[in-house]
Design a protein that fits this description.
Blueprint (H helix, E strand, L loop, with lengths): L1 E5 H7 L4 H16 L8 E3 L8 E5 L4 E7 L3 E9 H9 L1 E5 L6 E5 L29 H6 L7 H6 L5 H5 L4 H11 L48 H6 E3 L3 H9 L3 H5 L3 H8 L16 H15 L5 E5 L2 H14 L10 E5 H12 L8 H13 L12
Length: about 375
């Protein structure tokens, strides 16, 4: 039986207390060792849209949500009883009809807008939809679930960020790229097996008007998890050591799962300096960490320097680098991680001597004098 962990599981695990996390990890180990362990209490979630969602009792109030089939187990979420059940009732695991990737999709719920009266306030200008010129086929190609297409079409600058929180991450990332003028990279991946849609009577699973009729679930197979986007969200666990590492370091799921486009940047041979640019959250730091580790492995006699803007950031990078090269600690002996000001000071001291830093008051006084000189400052620029 294949055993996997979703990124949503490690994210939710990190929000529990230390004692709760220990109990969850013990249950996860038991589940991997023996899914039929007599101490594991499975409970089918009757109100869940996905008929394969089950809960596992960890303690009096903590529950693990798993997706269970005859050939696989996926740890999806963990939390307190009500929170876990509500999470499962709002989601389904399916194969995307266009990309073929496995996705945990949040169900589209009806949301009532509450109108708050405003007094003596001009009407705001209407925000234009961002994706009105894209076809359904194009949006589906970026991983947008079919039931979310109407919401994506109505999204504007103000609503996009909130909407992206409800979408699979590959879809959210693609829409944010499009909104900023970047063409997202897509992967033309074909499943080796045809997609099968079983006959599922969803009316018995949920009795609520909060969720509109949904399309039948697309079966999630091993091939669905082989898609590059799915590999970023779901990790196949082969043994207890891999499970222990995955549960110990939640961040490591990103350190291990590089997007194929990121891996190409990490392992490319550059003819001179190179610049990797992107908006916040696109993985530049992950690329830099993997790149320095890759160069250290490729050049065993080299010493490498990784720099950033401040001491707190350099400390954070040092910690993440330890996670990344945890099984090769000697690599770290050849990698230096410093803030720019720190390494600059070290180089100055090694080659010239102890630096003398001007006081902020002195710098401000010199700037004031320079600004008062006739034609000393271009009138196009201002200082504050």
């Amino acid at each position: 039986m294949e055993f996997r962990i979703a990124d949503t599981f490690t994210d939710s695990l990190a929000r529990l207390t230390g004692e709760e996390q220990k109990a969850v990890k013990t249950a996860a180990f038991d589940l991997q060792m023996n899914p039929a362990h007599p101490g594991l209490q499975f409970h089918k979630l009757e109100r869940a849209r996905d008929p394969n969602f089950w809960s596992i009792r960890v303690s009096r109030d903590v529950r693990i949500i798993v997706h269970r089939t005859g050939t696989s187990l996926l740890l999806c979420y963990v939390g307190h009883h009500d929170d876990s059940y509500q999470w499962a009732e709002r989601r389904k695991l399916e194969t995307h009809p266009k990309t073929g990737a496995a996705q945990l999709v949040e169900l589209r719920e009806r949301v009532q807008e509450i109108t708050v009266p405003r007094y003596v306030e001009p009407a705001p200008s209407a925000k234009l939809p961002l994706f009105a010129n894209l076809s359904d086929t194009e949006l589906l190609g970026y991983g947008v679930p079919s039931e979310w297409l109407p919401d994506v079409r109505k999204a504007n600058e103000e609503s996009l960020l909130e909407l992206s929180d409800h979408l699979p991450k590959e879809a959210a990332e693609a829409l944010l790229d499009l909104a900023t003028g970047t063409i997202p990279q897509t992967f033309h991946w074909v499943s080796p097996q045809p997609m099968v849609r079983p006959s599922v009577d969803v009316t018995k699973a949920i009795q609520t008007e909060a969720i509109p009729p949904q399309p039948e679930l697309a079966v999630v197979t091993t091939e669905s998890f082989e898609h590059p986007d799915a590999k970023r969200r779901f990790r196949l666990i082969n043994n207890l050591e891999e499970l222990e590492r995955a549960l110990e370091y939640p961040w490591e799921k990103w350190a291990v799962f590089l997007h194929p486009a990121q891996r190409e940047l990490v392992e490319r041979d550059y003819d001179g300096p190179a610049r990797v640019s992107g908006s916040a959250g696109t993985g530049k730091t992950i690329v830099a960490l993997h790149r320095v580790a890759y160069l250290a492995r490729k050049n065993p006699d080299s010493r490498l320097l990784l720099t950033t803007f401040s001491d707190p950031l350099s400390n954070a990078l040092r910690t993440k680098l330890r996670y990344l090269i945890g099984n090769q600690p000697r690599l770290g002996e050849r990698i230096e991680v410093h803030a720019m000001n720190s390494i600059g000071k070290q180089l100055y001291e090694a080659n010239i001597g102890k630096p003398k830093f001007a006081r902020p008051e002195t710098i401000q006084e010199l700037l004031d004098r320079a600004a008062q000189r006739p034609q000393a400052v271009d009138s196009r620029y201002s200082f504050c």
